Amino acid sequence: MRRIVLLVGMIIPFVAMAGLETLEAEPYEIPREVRIPAELKLPADTILISYSEYLVIPGSWLYTGQKYAVQFTPPSYPFELLAIGYLAYDFTDHDNDYDVPCDLVVFADGETPGAEIGRLNNAQQTEPLQVAFFDATLLDITINSGSFYCAVENTQDTFPVLAMDIESPVHRRGWMYADVGEGNAWYPFSELISPDYPDMSLADTLDPVIQVIGVTSGGIVELEPDVTEIAPTVAIVASQGTINYILNEPGNVEITLWDGLGRKASTLFTGYSESGEHSLSWDSTDLPRGAYFIHLSVGNLKATSKVVLVD
Fold it and tell me: Could you name the domain of life of the organism this protein comes from (predicted)?
């Protein structure tokens, strides 16, 4: 596979397909019953599809018209797209960076992002360190098979800078539209390397923080992990105040809660657990609304899940 050194340069701004309707981005209020896909998925569930765990660093600065994208594969079909979210990096030494407007673009399936099928103009993140979601219902996009791509497109040079997740597991779904020395084109992260780390592609370490919310309309589907690992898994249903976790082997377990700034908020459980499925109740009523992370460790094995608390 070819490896291209990442040297981002100015490119010609991307032009939407002729006749394609575009909309102004409007904030989307996350429903209380949004679920993070777990082992089984029921019909008509509103779900969040995310390939990021929220330990973030800034991505490369882009110029007008350049994009980062993520390939999404729904757990069942048809999948109705309700909202698109992204996280811009907040540089503490620079004012007005994360809240610079950008466009959110949806592309059809393909070996690279395909035809543009929808666009939300002037999306603007208003809170630092929190994914901003925008209403995509009027784009009327339903995915009946395969995958689709969502991108954040810069509408001015430099800012916003999309956040990149560096937490494991790495999902290898990132793409970039830029000129990296071979013309203006889409490049998967697996073909891009940093000059500082010539033996490692971006796909080995980074996931762009772009997420989608939608409705699954199919029957019950069993989801398989991207990679089979001998490690505990954690599934969280925030609306029920429950943490469900599975251990392949018995051991001493610690479950901790972390806020979006990477600060430990509390210890939810410490103790010995047998192998198998376990359930733990937790009270989130006194916590500020926003994104949190629940971290499980048992021996040298670790797993992390994200939960979004909403009113």
Answer: Bacteria
Look up residue 90 and give its DSSP letter: -
CA dihedral 160, 165, 171, 172 (to 10 degrees): 50
Distance CA 86, CA 94 (A): 19
Tokens of 147: 């995958």
Domains of the chain, by residue range, sit at 4-216, 229-309
Element (H, E) at 41: strand 40-41
More confident residue, 207 or 301: 207
Which residue, 87, 46, 72, is CA-closest to 239? Answer: 46
| pLDDT tens per residue across span 285-304 | 788 777 777 878 887 777 77
Fold of 229-309: Immunoglobulin-like (2.60.40)
